[in-house]
Amino acid sequence: MKETNKKEQQVRLPELTEKLIKKDKQYAGMSKRLQIMYWILLPVYFILILVHIIDGSPVKDILGSGFFLLAMLNFALLFRYYHKTYNTVDYSQPTLVMLKKAVARYQPYQVKTLWALLGIVFVDLGLVFNSSLGFDVIWVQLVFGGTVLVSIGIGLLIWRVSYKPLRDAARAMIREIEGE
């Protein structure tokens, strides 16, 4: 029976590895494109801050644009990290190590998620402080907060459909290898 399990494992491992490689490349490419977008937006917000200063805009508007600038920098660095993480996965590592790292990569909640939340807070502060937009603080919190919650829900749905099966398959393979 153990011999049959080893055969099944050998057949499934290449398929799983192929799927992981495909998703990692896809995620690396998406992260690279988003990173470039945020690097492009950084100077735009820097110029906007300079325009606010030259025009003698209220300090709130300058602060609002400053928070947008911080958000763009935060997201650019975060997607740089994601691109590096997913673009440099080493599939030549021992199988168990490679699978455990895949499980860690495809967890929905990770410490690096806090960096995304920091960027979201910066965008929120940018909306609140930028009085030239004419937004009411409570309205901003309701609409932006609702948008963030819906986005998180959509993200978790995408994770459940696209990434959870990979994570679960890697977990099952780990259990087989460890003999649990």
Give the structure's gist in a few sentences:
With 180 residues, the chain is mainly α. 85% of the residues lie in helices and 0% in strands. The longest helix has 54 residues, at 2-55.
Beta-strand share of residues: under 5%
**Discrete helix count:** 5
Please summarize the sheet with the most strands: none
Report the radius of gyration as a whole number of Å. Answer: 22 Å
- Secondary-structure-derived class: mainly alpha
Helix content: over 70%
Distance between the termini: 15 Å
Please give a structural write-up.
- With 180 residues, this protein is an all-alpha fold.
- Helices cover 85% and strands 0% of the residues.
- The chain has five helices and no strands.
- The two termini are 15 Å apart.
Provide tags for this entry:
single chain, 180 residues, mainly alpha, 5 helices, 85% helix, elongated
Q: Topology of this structure?
A:
Elements: H1 2-55, H2 59-87, H3 95-105, H4 113-129, H5 137-178
Helix pairs in contact: 1-2, 1-5, 2-4, 3-5, 4-5
